[in-house]
Specification:
Blueprint lengths: L4 H14 L16 E3 L4 E3 L21 E8 L2 E8 L2 E15 L13 H9 L20 H8 L19 E15 L4 E16 L13 H19 L3 H15 L12 H8 L4 E5 L5 E2 L5 E2 L2 E5 L2 E18 L4 E3 L2 E24 L2 E3 L56 H4 L3 E3 L8 E25 L3 E23 L23 E22 L17 E16 L5 E2 L11 E2 L3 E16 L1
Antiparallel strand pairs: 1-2, 3-4, 5-6, 5-23, 6-7, 7-12, 8-11, 9-10, 12-14, 13-14, 14-17, 15-16, 17-18, 18-19, 19-20, 20-23, 21-22
C-alpha cells in the first residue's frame, strides 16, 4: 500500500490554522442560594455544604464500606480485603484442667468409727494367731488400729471412712469453648459464646492394694463365701448332715496344692488373701445421741471387704450473649473495654457410692466353734479383724496383711497353714440367698443458672502477637433439682436392721428421695490469652487455606460459681430400715470451681 505524503502536509497545516481561532465554551456557573462567587464559580458558603451522609470513611463511600483487591508483588499474587464497618471474629478452644469437687465425708460425721463400733462386742477376747497378743485386755486386737489412728498414720484405720478432702478432690475435665462475634469501627462489638466442660472423679479402694499380691483368686473366694453361707443355712435348718457334707468337700479341696505361687485351694488361705480392709460407711442407725457440750455417741460404721467405690461426675454447659462497649482507655496498642453479658449454665453432677461385703465375720480369737456357722459361736457377726495394712508380709506366710488375724514378725509362720488350715476362722450368720450383699446410693443434681454479669476486657499488641484478658462478675438465679435412690444402706452385718424381701416386695430396703431448691449464686470468671501468627511456620498447615489467616491461641481461665449444690455432701447418711431410717437429701452448698488451660485457633475476617 502507498501513502500520499501531500495529505500529511495538508492535514497538519489545517490544524495549525485552527489553533488561532477563539474557542467557545459554557459560560461560568451562576451563584445559587447558599453559594458564593470566587471568580470562577460557586463554592459552598459558610453553614452550607454536602449532606452529612457524604462524610469521610468509615461512612458512605463509593466502595459500599468494603473492598477487595488483587495485586502482584514481587511476582506473587496477593489478595487484600477490608470490612470497614465490622471485623468478624471466630475463636475455638480446647479446654483441659481440673474441677474441684466436694470435700465432704462419705458417711455420717457423728457416727463412731468401726473399732468403736465393735469394741464392746469383742469383749475380753484375746487376740491370738500371728498377732501374738496375749492377756485379757479388752479389744486387744484393735490396739494396732486405735494407736495408729491416734498417731494419724494414713491408711491404718480399720474400715475407715472416706473423706474427700483428704484424697484427690479434683476431677480431671475436658471441654470446648467457641466464640463468634464482631467488632465495629469504634471498637464496640458483640460476642456469642458456647462452653462445655465435663469430668469425673473415681475412687476404688482396691487401687491402694495393687502390687501387694492380694486379691489373686476373687472368683474362688466368692465361691467359698457362698459355700460358707450355705453351710450356715443348712445348720440353722437342722440339716447337719448336709452341712457336714459341704464342709467335707471344702476340706478335701483344700488338700490339693496348686503349683502357682500366690494361689491356694484352702478356704482360710484364699479368704485371708481376698477379703480386704477396704473402707467403712458411718451411719446413724438411730442410736446417735448429742449432748450439751457438743459431743455425740452412738452410730455405727458399716464394713465392706469386697468392694468400696465412690465416683463423682460433673457436666457443665453454658452460653452467653455479650455486648462489648467502646474503649474507656485507648493508649495505642492497649485498650480497655467494659462488657455486659446475659449468661446461662446447666450444671449436672452425679454422686455414686457402691459397696459389697462378704457377710462373713472373722477373727482368730478363741471360743469359736462350728464350720461355717454351726455350733456354739461366740463371735459377733459385726467383727472383721485384719492385720494393720502396712503392705508387709510380717509373718512370712505368703499373704500380705492377712484377713482374719493380726500379723507380726518373730517367725510366726503358722498363719493360713499348719494348725490354722484346720481351724475355722471365717463364719457366716446370714441367709445365703442375700449374701454377699451389695449396698449403693446415687445422688444427682441438675442446676439451671441464668443471669447477667459485668466486667472488663483488655487487649494489648498487634497482628503478630496479641495479649488479652477479661474479668467478669455476675449474679445467677439457681434452680436446683436433686434426686436420690439406693438400697441396703444399713449395718448389714445385723439381720435385725434389714427388712426381709417377700413376693410383694423384692427390695424392701430400697429408698428414694427428691427435692427442689431456688436461690442466687454469685459468679466470677477470669481469662488470660495470647495469640500469635504461628501457623505460617508449620510446614503442612501453612499450605492449608483455612489457616492462612488463623492465629494460634493459648491461655488459662478460672470459673467460680458460688452457692451450688454439693451433690456428694447433700446426703443425710442414716440407715436402719426396720426402724424406718433411710438416707434422705439434706442440701449442702459449696463453690463450683474449674481451672483450665486452653489451646485453640482464632480467625479475623
Amino acid at each position: 500500500m502507498r501513502f500520499k505524503h501531500w495529505l500529511t502536509t495538508l492535514f497538519g497545516s489545517s490544524l495549525i490554522a485552527a489553533s488561532t481561532l477563539t474557542a467557545q465554551a459554557q459560560p461560568p456557573m451562576g451563584t445559587a442560594p447558599g453559594m458564593a462567587y470566587d471568580g470562577y464559580g460557586g463554592v459552598p458558603a459558610p453553614g452550607y455544604g454536602p449532606p452529612g451522609m457524604y462524610s469521610q470513611w468509615p461512612e458512605i463511600s463509593p466502595y459500599q464500606n468494603s473492598y477487595s483487591q488483587q495485586i502482584n508483588e514481587g511476582g506473587t499474587w496477593k489478595e487484600s480485603e477490608n470490612q470497614l464497618a465490622r471485623r468478624y471474629r471466630l475463636k475455638i478452644d480446647y479446654l483441659t484442667g481440673r474441677t474441684r469437687v466436694s470435700d465432704a465425708l462419705v458417711g455420717n460425721t457423728q457416727a463412731q468409727n468401726y473399732p468403736d463400733t465393735i469394741r464392746s462386742e469383742i469383749g475380753n477376747q484375746q487376740g491370738q494367731g500371728g498377732g501374738g497378743q496375749q492377756g485379757g485386755q479388752q479389744g486387744s486386737v484393735l490396739t494396732p488400729f486405735t494407736s495408729s489412728e491416734a498417731q494419724g498414720r494414713v491408711g491404718f484405720p480399720l474400715y475407715g471412712a472416706l473423706n474427700l478432702s483428704k484424697v484427690q478432690r479434683a476431677v480431671h475435665n475436658q471441654g470446648v469453648r467457641a466464640e463468634w462475634g464482631w467488632d465495629n469501627a469504634d471498637d464496640s462489638g458483640l460476642r456469642l459464646e458456647f462452653l462445655t466442660n465435663q469430668g469425673d472423679f473415681n475412687f476404688d479402694a482396691h487401687d491402694r492394694l495393687r502390687g501387694q499380691n492380694r486379691d489373686t483368686q476373687p472368683d474362688l473366694a466368692l465361691f467359698f463365701i457362698k459355700q460358707l453361707h450355705l453351710i450356715n443355712e443348712l445348720n440353722s435348718q437342722g440339716n447337719v448332715a448336709a452341712a457336714t457334707q459341704v464342709q467335707s468337700e471344702l476340706d478335701q479341696l483344700g488338700l490339693v496344692q496348686p503349683t502357682v505361687v500366690g494361689r491356694w485351694n484352702d478356704v482360710n488361705r484364699v479368704l485371708m488373701n481376698n477379703l480386704d480392709n477396704l473402707g467403712g460407711l458411718p451411719l446413724n442407725d438411730g442410736t446417735i445421741r448429742s449432748f450439751a457440750d457438743g459431743s455425740t455417741t452412738g452410730g455405727v460404721t458399716v464394713p465392706f471387704d469386697l468392694e468400696f467405690q465412690v465416683s463423682l461426675k460433673s457436666e457443665l454447659y453454658g452460653g452467653k450473649v455479650e455486648s462489648v462497649m467502646t474503649p474507656i482507655a485507648n493508649l495505642g496498642p492497649f485498650r480497655i473495654r467494659p462488657t455486659v453479658s446475659a449468661r446461662y449454665f446447666y450444671l449436672n453432677e452425679r454422686f455414686r457410692f457402691y459397696g459389697k461385703d462378704s457377710g462373713l465375720a472373722y477373727n482368730s480369737g478363741g471360743g469359736q466353734q462350728g464350720g461355717g456357722g454351726g455350733g456354739a459361736q461366740t463371735l459377733s457377726p459385726d467383727i472383721k479383724i485384719h492385720s494393720p495394712p502396712d503392705g508387709v508380709d510380717d509373718d512370712r506366710d505368703g499373704i500380705v496383711d492377712n484377713a482374719g488375724r493380726t500379723e507380726s514378725g518373730g517367725g510366726q509362720q503358722q498363719g493360713g497353714g499348719g494348725q490354722q488350715q484346720n481351724q475355722q476362722i471365717f463364719f457366716s450368720f446370714h441367709d445365703h440367698f442375700r449374701y454377699p450383699i451389695e449396698s449403693f446410693l446415687n445422688n444427682s443434681s441438675e442446676q439451671h443458672l441464668g443471669g447477667a454479669d459485668v466486667g472488663l476486657t483488655y487487649d494489648f499488641g498487634g497482628q503478630s502477637l496479641a495479649l488479652s484478658g477479661s474479668t467478669k462478675f455476675g449474679l445467677l438465679a439457681n434452680y436446683a433439682q436433686l434426686k436420690m435412690n439406693g438400697d441396703n444402706i444399713a449395718m448389714h452385718t445385723r439381720d435385725s436392721n434389714l427388712l426381709l424381701p417377700d413376693v410383694s416386695n423384692a427390695t424392701p430396703n430400697a429408698f428414694s428421695d427428691k427435692q427442689f431448691h431456688t436461690h442466687v449464686s454469685p459468679m466470677f470468671e477470669q481469662q488470660f490469652n495470647a495469640e500469635a501468627s504461628l501457623f505460617q511456620y508449620v510446614p503442612v498447615l501453612r499450605r492449608m487455606s483455612v489457616f492462612e489467616k488463623a492465629r494460634f491461641r493459648a491461655g488459662y481461665s478460672i470459673l467460680l460459681i458460688g452457692q451450688v449444690t454439693d451433690t456428694a455432701g447433700s446426703i443425710s447418711w442414716q440407715g436402719n430400715p426396720t426402724a424406718g431410717l433411710f438416707p434422705t437429701i439434706r442440701e449442702r452448698r459449696n463453690t463450683y470451681a474449674t481451672y483450665n488451660y486452653n489451646l485453640g485457633v482464632s480467625w479475623e475476617f
